[in-house]
Amino acid sequence: MADVLVYSTSSCPFCLMAFRLLDSKGIGYDVVDVGQDPALWAEMESKSGRQTVPQIFIGGRHVGGFDDLSRADSRGEIDALLKAAEKLN
Fold it and tell me: How far, in Å, CA of 41 to CA of 51, rounded?
C-alpha cells in the first residue's frame, strides 16, 4: 500500500471530509494531529508551504488540502499517484 499521510487537527471539518474521501476509496493513511504540537505544525508548514489543515501527502508528494484532494479524485489522479508511489516502494 502506498504511503498516505494527513496532517490534521481534531476539530477540522475539512480533515473529516478528507478522511471520508480516502475511506470511501479504501485508502489507508496515517494521521499526524498537529493541533496541540507547535513543532508538528511547523513541520507541516515547512513540508507543505501552507498554514491550514488538512495537508495530504501521497507517496511523499504534496497533494494539498481537502479541496485539492477532491479535485484530484474527480480527475482520476489519486489512483495514479498511489500506483506511482507503490512502484517506488
Answer: 8
